[in-house]
Every structure is written in C-alpha cells, then in structure tokens.
Design goal:
This protein is an alpha/beta fold and 553 residues long. The chain folds into three domains: 223 residues, Glucose-6-phosphate isomerase like protein, domain 1 (Rossmann fold), CATH 3.40.50.10490; 165 residues, Rossmann fold (3-Layer(aba) Sandwich); 37 residues, Phosphoglucose isomerase, C-terminal domain. Helices cover 48% and strands 12% of the residues. It contains 22 helices and 13 strands. The strands form three sheets. A six-stranded mixed beta sheet has the order 1-2-13-12-10-11, sandwiched between helices. Strands 6-5-7-8-9 form a five-stranded parallel beta sheet, sandwiched between helices. Strand 1 and strand 2 form a beta hairpin. The chain is globular, with a radius of gyration of 25 Å. 46% of the residues are buried. Bound molecules: 6-O-phosphono-beta-D-fructofuranose. 6-O-phosphono-beta-D-fructofuranose binds next to loops.
Length: 553
C-alpha cells in the first residue's frame, strides 16, 4: 500500500470529480469553454495529441497532474533514465532508451553486480548491424549457392516478432522493400507450411530472434526451418544463411550460428521494448538502414520531450493521464486504437503486448493487491475497416470505449482523393462519438424523409446515439521512420507513466509462466499411447477426446 497522504487525496479528488453528474458530458465541456480544443491539445513539432474529445475536464486534469506528482512520477522518470532497477521482481533496469541514444550519451544500466555502459554497448552493436545490412544489400553477403538474398525470414514471437513485424509494415508498405520480410511466430505447423512454398531457400536469410533463445515456439520453428533449409541446400547453408538476435550467446553458439551473424543485447532490454535493439534487424534489412536509424532518432526525440516538457504539455504523460481518468475514475476498462493508415495495421497488435503485458497486473510493487484497476483491454484494427466491424458497439453499445485515432496529414501514395476520404472518415468517427444524435433528431430526420409515424416511433430509438463517447486524436505530418519512432516511444512512456501511478512493475511478465509450465506437462500426454495425467476433469476429458478424434486413444 502506498502510504502517501497527497496520493490518497488525489485519488479521492478524482473519485469525487467522477461522481459529478457532468463528469461524462464532453459536449458540455466544449460548450463551457470555447478554447477547449486548443487548451486540450499538445504537440511535439508536427506530432499533435488532441485530447479535447476525451472526458477529462480542467478540474480532472488538475487532479490527474496532482496524482502524477504525488505518485512520484518525476523521481520515477529519473530512476528509469538513470538505469536504476525499475523491474524489481527480475532485478533489472529497463534501459531500452539507451538503444536509441547517441553513442556518447553516457546512459548506464544497473546490473546485479555492476553497471553496463548502455549507450556505448548499443552503439557498438548498431555498427555491427549496419555493416551486416550493408553487406546483405550490396550482395557482398550471399546465400550458400552464391545467390544474393531477396527475403529475410524472422523466426520469433512476442516482442521478438510484434515490434519488427509492425515496423516493417509501417516503413515498407508504401514502397519497394530492399528485402521482403516474412515473420514466422506461431508454432502451429500451418504457419510455416503456408509460407514455405513462396520462399526460395537459396535466397532466404533466416534470423532466429529470441531474447532468451529458449522460447519453445521459436526454437521449434527454428529447428524446423533449419531442417527444411538443410534438406534443400545441404547442411553448409546453415552457416551462410542463419543469423541470431539474442541475449543468450551460449545457446546461440550451441545452435551453430556463426559469431559474425550474431547480434546481442542485454537483459536490461525487455522483449516488448526490443524493436530498437538487434531485434529490429529485419526492419533495417527490409526498410533500409536510414529508415531504421530515423526510427531510433524519432524514439530519442520523444525521450527528450518526455524528459523535458512540463507534465501539463508532455505527450506521454497526457496520454497516460487521460487513460487513468477513463479507466480508474470512469470505470471504462477497454481502449480501442484506430490507425487510419494501412501501414499501421499491426500497430494495435504491437500495443496489445506493450500495454497488456506491461500493465496487466493486479499486484502492487509492495506485494499487496493493487488499489485501482490497471491496464484496459486494448484492441484495434485499421480504419476504415474497423467501421464495418466493431464500431457499431463503440457508437451504441452499453459500454463507452475510449478510442485513440491516429493518422498522417500527408500520404505516401498518389491518390489524394483516397487520402481525403480516409481522413474524413477518421474525423467523422471522432465527431460522431462526441456529438451523437438525439432521439428527437432521429425522428425529425425520418419525418423529413416521409416515414410513417408508427414506423418513426418504432425505429427512431435504434437510430439515436448517446454521444459523449471519449477519444483522442494523434495527428502527424507523415508516417516515416522518425514519426514511427516517436509514436512507439510515446506509447512506451505512456505505459511507464501509468505503471508508476498504479505502483506496479511494468517490466516483468510472470503471468505468461503458468501456461508455459502446464503445456510442458500436457505435451507428453498427447503422444500416441500415453495416458492423460491428473488435471481438472475438463482438461483430462479434453485430452482424451483429442486423442480419440485422432484415433489414438
Ligand atoms: O510472452 C512472454 C515472452 O517472454 C515475452 O515477454 C517475449 O517478448 C516473448 O515471450 C518472446 O521471448 P523471447 O524473445 O525470449 O523468445
């Protein structure tokens, strides 16, 4: 329990404000303050966060800023960037910011028995990556048969997949990639079967991406792809065409990957924060080194903003605080992310791990249950597709769902009208969520179209919208590497700020362990002839039924 009177007072103040009858009335806030749009907008250069359509009012924002202060956000931020142990359950720093820092930035990370010169280590590995990318692109590095590579196949899961997969889409869908990137994450054999037919083994560079190099899914897939390639080209191809991205250099060596194809990082980089590390190598190979470096520069620009901007103008802090208001004060436990940009189609999936693996916790740092609800359920799809699937619920369902809209002002294609249609839809969705439509308006519309009165009475309630549904809008000039880096770091720091306020460890993930252990127990029971073990009655029956359906009981 955080024994802190100002903190308790700040939470009480938020609860009092939330109990006010107008707490959810966003339209009333606009009516009361003609300057609300400007007052509730903050920017980092062209990157703008408009949170005026959120439910936060001026008193709530003052209370939220007091909450951040009372929670010790300033000291937490200093400890985070100082490389202190901010992940106490694993005894680790969270120093992913060093991966995008200047080589001489002097960032350090605390280790159990000392300290890493994090900026310097990251820069040295970056140089090695850049050299590798240059050799692949120039054809100096080729496959075992002498053909240049045309595909990079990344084998990894979770943070070793979601970040690079999302970034490759974001940075290559608008143009022609240097190399095609393919991502194999699921241990389901259908996943590799579905892509193997379109891979030319002689021209495929395989990267085994795993922080621990022990993850069952990744190692299973790595061995399968290794056998496939050796079967097609002979064992010698493995040395020439396999690389590894990992912290576990001993295990990488045992797999038989050449040291010059191995790119390392340290435990102070969490899996879901690792796209800036060698885990980002597929991004550099597909999108080019300049785009990857621009992404790092963008992340660094957001770091500097997060470190320097006053909290009331600080984008990650404001995004975090609007979230806290919606989740903890108004009890809205979901968060929708709608990027109106096809290139960001994997951004919600990436954010799901970033937010839910970081802050999906119910125990506070002191081991007691948390006192306030933590991470919302995050989901999303690209706009406009989402409008034709789940947006019905967001507009008219029983629970308001806060939405983050994201889009670029300038598109990287030559169909300006399509871009205007896209953005008109994004703006219209946010406007509709705010404005709504009263039953009287719905009735008047139907009457104007000549509908019969009994039909109007029956149908108008279904055509009404409550409005006052909250959203944020994040707009930027263009989606390039620099902006992608800013966006990723924006959400990373948002998550850290919320974790600080909820007093949880945002950098561990013990919740994924139990299932892994139980899968290890069930696996041998699924072998033909093996007996089902002692489980709950449902699991035992399902094991038996599975085997019966396979004719193996
Ligand atoms: O899902 C649990 C997790 O540990 C994630 O945190 C991580 O990103 C993923 O598995 C993959 O881990 P690794 O990179 O070690 O294979």
């Amino acid at each position: 329990m955080q024994n802190n009177a100002p903190l308790a007072a700040a939470w009480t103040r938020l609860a009092d404000l939330a109990a006010h009858p107008e707490a959810r009335d966003i339209r009333a806030r606009f009516a009361a303050d003609p300057d609300r749009a400007a007052r509730f907008t903050a920017s980092l250069d062209d990157l703008t966060l408009d949170y005026s359509k959120s439910s936060v009012g001026p008193e709530a924002m003052a209370a939220l800023l007091a909450l951040a202060e009372a929670a010790g956000l300033e000291a937490f931020r200093a400890r985070l960037f100082g490389g202190d142990v901010v992940n106490p359950t694993e005894g680790r720093a969270a120093m992913h910011m060093a991966l995008r820092s200047a080589p001489d930035a002097g960032m350090r990370a605390t280790l159990p028995g000392g300290v890493d010169e994090a900026s310097r280590l990251a820069a040295a590995e970056r140089d090695k990556m850049q050299d590798f990318v240059r050799k692949v692109h120039s054809g100096e590095l080729r496959g075992a048969t002498g053909l240049p590579f045309n595909t990079v196949l990344n084998i990894g899961i979770g943070g070793s997949d979601l970040g690079p997969r999302m970034a490759v889409d974001a940075l290559t869908l608008a143009g022609t990639p240097h190399l095609r990137a393919r991502f194999l994450s699921n241990v389901d054999g259908h996943a590799f079967a579905a892509m193997a037919h379109e891979l030319d083994p002689a021209r495929t560079l395989v990267l085994v991406a795993s922080k621990t190099f022990t993850t069952l899914e990744t190692m299973t897939n790595a061995h399968a792809v290794r056998a496939w390639m050796a079967g097609q080209l002979g064992e010698a191809a493995i040395g020439a065409q396999f690389g590894a991205l990992s912290t576990n250099l001993a295990a990488v060596g045992a797999f038989g990957i050449r040291p010059e194809h191995v790119f390392g990082f340290r435990d102070w980089v969490g899996g879901r924060y690792s796209v800036w590390s060698p885990i980002g190598l597929p991004v550099a190979l597909a999108a080019g080194w300049e785009a990857f470096q621009a992404m790092l520069d963008g992340g660094r620009a957001m770091d500097e903003h997060f470190l320097r901007a006053p909290f009331a103008e600080n984008l990650p802090v404001l995004l975090a605080l609007t979230g806290i208001w919606h989740i903890d004060a108004l009890d809205l436990r979901t968060q929708c992310v709608l990027a109106y940009d096809e290139r960001l189609r994997r951004f919600p999936a990436y954010l799901q791990q970033l937010e839910m693996e970081s802050n999906g916790k119910s125990v506070a740092l002191d081991g007691h249950p948390v006192e306030h609800p933590t991470c919302p359920v995050v989901f999303g799809e690209p706009g406009t597709d989402a409008q034709h699937s789940f947006m019905q619920l967001v507009h008219q369902g029983t629970q308001p769902v806060p939405v983050d809209f994201l889009f670029a002002a300038v598109a990287d294609h030559d169909r300006p009208e399509a871009h205007r249609i896209l953005i008109a839809n994004a703006l219209a969705q946010a406007e509709a969520l705010l404005r709504g439509k009263t039953a009287a308006e719905a009735e008047a519309e139907m009457r104007a179209k000549g509908a019969a009165e009994d039909h109007i009475r029956a149908v108008a309630p279904h055509r009404a919208f409550s409005g006052n549904r909250p959203s944020n809008t994040i707009m930027f000039r263009r989606l390039d590497g620099f902006t992608l880096g800013r966006l990723i770091a924006l959400y990373e720091h948002k998550v850290a700020v919320q974790g600080c306020i909820w007093n949880i460890d945002s950098f561990d993930q013990w919740g994924v362990e139990l299932g892994k252990v139980l899968a290890g127990g069930i696996l041998p029971e699924l072998a033909a002839g093996a007996q089902a073990g002692a489980h709950d009655a449902s699991t035992t029956a399902l094991v038996r039924r599975f085997k019966a359906l396979r004719g193996e009981s």
